[in-house]
């Protein structure tokens, strides 16, 4: 049994960098992306507290950053007395990857079913629906 567990872990088809982020890592990464530029760790901590009511200890944030760096999402560097975080992965690329995975899993890879699911969820305004229709019509151009 012990050998099987080791084998299963080493034969994982997804490399460590391709794995999705945890919920907390996603919040940290979203905050970094929202900054629009490199962000200092103290500013990151403040933004997490203000935007998401996450009052993480500095060591907790450092642990998240270490994991994000290990997954290839960020690079942390020092500038003077402060540490700064630089996003290495693009937010749009990551969101597209997540959407593709959800579409493949929940909608059998069918984009039409995904869009129908958005409409069916019933949380869209008529304006939202019209924007989607215009976006779809724009794909024909």
Strand content: 5-15%
Unreliable runs: 1-17
Major β-sheet annotation: 3 strands, antiparallel
The CATH superfamily of the largest domain is identified as: Winged helix-like DNA-binding domain superfamily/Winged helix DNA-binding domain
Provide structural commentary.
- The protein is mainly alpha-helical and 141 residues long.
- The protein has two domains: 15-87, Winged helix-like DNA-binding domain superfamily/Winged helix DNA-binding domain (Arc Repressor Mutant, subunit A); 91-138, no CATH class.
- It has seven helices and three strands.
- The chain has helices spanning 2-10, 23-35, 41-52, 58-70, 91-106, 111-120, 126-138; strands at residues 39-40, 74-79, 82-87.
- Strands 1-3-2 form a three-stranded antiparallel β-sheet.
- Helix 2 (23-35) crosses helix 3.
- The termini are far apart.
